[in-house]
TrEMBL record:
Any GO CC annotation of this UniProt entry: nucleus
InterPro entries registered for this protein in UniProt: IQ_motif_EF-hand-BS, P-loop_NTPase
Organism: Tetraodon nigroviridis (Spotted green pufferfish)
Gene3D superfamilies: 1.20.5.190
The name this protein goes by in its record: Calmodulin binding transcription activator 1a
Compositional bias segments (type: Polar residues): 226-239
Pfam families tied to this protein: IQ (PF00612)
Example of a GO biological process term: regulation of transcription by RNA polymerase II
Region of interest called Disordered, as start-end residue ranges on this chain: 217-239
Length: 239
């Protein structure tokens, strides 16, 4: 069984602290309490002062360091002895590892095939989505182009019709202005032309009337005086 490293380190620290606490407690218990007494005489020997100093002096840092290192080494040895596996356990562990590797190798091929199939399906779907997005963008662009072209065509037709209307209005206004400001000789020529046509028509009418009158006289002469009646004195055509 494998223990985590952090747990081992925490257990080592706790064990060392407990041991140090026990050692210091034992020393304090075995040490005699200091009693207040008279001051020692200066004549007393230096042996009493040395003994008092030896009792009051604490262990040095080197002693503490060596003590802690020794306890740590002992703890590591005990832990390593506890963690050591026997041959049967090692064989069982190797067998479990071998079976895990075999199952992983067996499942590796199908997993790779599944990954390939999944990647192919994803690629197919992505290509179809790209084609659909491209088709949608093309249709939107075609609709936009058609709408712009229709609006441009209608605008162009309106501009052409407006320009033609403006030109027609300009020509009509210029024509009316020219009719209003015709010169007097032109009017005389136009009036003379009208009178000439009227005179020609009057002459034709008079010729026709004279011809009719002459025919009536000739017919009357051909009939003679017998055919004359009292009502025939009046001429059929009077001018």
């Amino acid at each position: 069984v494998a223990y985590p490293v952090e747990l081992l380190e925490k257990s080592d620290c706790l064990s060392t602290c407990a041991r140090v606490y026990c050692v210091t407690g034992e020393r304090l218990l075995h040490s005699k309490p200091q009693t207040l007494g008279p001051k020692p005489d200066s004549l007393s020997g230096p042996v009493d002062q040395q003994s008092l100093q030896a009792k009051q002096v604490l262990p040095s840092p080197l002693d503490w360091k060596s003590f802690l290192s020794s306890t740590k080494e002992a703890r590591l040895k005990t832990d390593s002895s506890c963690l050591a596996m026997i041959e049967a356990e090692q064989g069982a562990l190797f067998e479990v590892i071998r079976r895990a590797l075999q199952s992983l190798r067996k499942n590796k091929g199908p997993i790779q095939e599944q990954r390939k199939e999944i990647s192919a399906v994803i690629q197919r779907c992505y290509k179809r989505y790209k084609q659909y997005a491209l088709y949608k963008r093309m249709t939107l662009a075609a609709i936009l182009i058609q709408s712009h072209f229709r609006s441009f065509h209608e605008k162009r037709k309106f501009q052409q019709s407006r320009k033609a209307a403006v030109l027609i209005q300009q020509y009509y206004r210029s024509y009316r202005h020219s009719l209003r400001h015709i010169s007097y000789p032109c009017l005389l020529a136009y009036s003379s032309l009208l009178t000439k046509k009227q005179n020609q028509a009057a002459r034709k009418i008079l010729r026709f009337l004279l011809r009719c009158r002459h025919r009536a006289k000739e017919q009357r002469k051909a009939r003679g005086p017998e055919s004359s009646t009292p009502g025939s004195a009046h001429s059929p055509i009077s001018l």
